Amino acid sequence: RKEVEQDPGPFNVPEGATVAFNCTYSNSASQSFFWYRQDCRKEPKLLMSVYSSGNEDGRFTAQLNRASQYISLLIRDSKLSDSATYLCVVNVGRTYKYIFGTGTRLKVLA
Amino acid sequence: NAGVTQTPKFQVLKTGQSMTLQCAQDMNHNSMYWYRQDPGMGLRLIYYSASEGTTDKGEVPNGYNVSRLNKREFSLRLESAAPSQTSVYFCASSRDKIETQYFGPGTRLLVL
């Protein structure tokens, strides 16, 4: 089993739709969680950190479920510019080890 | 404030050639990392430097060496390039462990 698993997609959604991605992790010692966005042939850029209580940034909401060992990302009112690959990243055991998922590809259609 | 910079952006090598990838950050971060990204795989850690003066192996260190030149700079060296090292290489930095990582624009390397 992979340490961090994501559905690769693609998720094809119309503009204005709400879309949600999940990411499961296997190591219960995982401490920090992040969602990154990666555009084609570009570097990953932080979208948001994921806190135990959940957090929201504009149209984006992230949730953490430690009991079931997954994090989620909800995007409301999708824009064409949201088209990208979304990477789930987990830091394990307060170390320098960050485990990256392979990413979920989102295409927002006009 | 440039963040994390990397040079070169692109490189083509022949098998057996050597090269050094350069990385610098201006965020006064303690920790720096080198990753490679291959199709269908998540980013994999090659080496990291927890702080100036220290380096440690990551998940895929074979065929690579690193130098933490000072707090700002962390270089990755391929002593004898192999086709299996064809990849996109990203440098990243963070204030400390478990903190957010910030990435450079990447180096696309092709080994023939």
Question: Overview of this structure, please?
Answer:
The complex is a heterodimer of chains A (110) and B (112). In chain A, β4 (30-38) and β5 (45-50) form a beta hairpin. Chain A is globular. In chain A, strands 2, 4, 5, 9, 10 and 11 form a six-stranded mixed β-sheet that branches. Chain A has a five-stranded antiparallel β-sheet with strand order 1-3-8-7-6, with no helix packed on it. The relative contact order of chain A is 0.35. Chain A contains no helices and eleven strands. Chain A has strands at 4-6, 11-14, 19-25, 30-38, 45-50, 55-57, 60-65, 70-75, 84-92, 98-100, 104-109. Chain B is globular and about 35 Å long. Classes of the chains: A mainly beta (110), B mainly beta (112). The A-B interface holds A 4, 31-32, 34, 42-46, 49, 87, 89, 91, 94-103 and B 31, 33, 35, 40-45, 48, 50, 56, 58, 90, 97-106.
Low-confidence stretches of chain A: none
Whole-Å distance between the termini of chain A? 37 Å
Radius of gyration of chain B: 13 Å
- The average pLDDT score of chain B comes to 95
The low-confidence runs of chain B, each spanning 5 or more residues with pLDDT under 50, are: none
Brief summary:
The complex is a heterodimer of chains A (110) and B (112). Chain A is an all-beta fold and 110 residues long.
Tell me the layout of helices and strands.
The complex is a heterodimer of chains A (110) and B (112).
Chain A: E1 4-6, E2 11-14, E3 19-25, E4 30-38, E5 45-50, E6 55-57, E7 60-65, E8 70-75, E9 84-92, E10 98-100, E11 104-109
Chain B: E1 4-7, E2 10-13, E3 19-25, E4 31-37, E5 44-49, E6 56-57, E7 64-68, E8 74-78, E9 87-94, E10 102-103, E11 107-111
Parallel strand pairs in B: 2-11
Antiparallel strand pairs in B: 1-3, 3-8, 4-5, 4-9, 5-6, 7-8, 9-10, 9-11
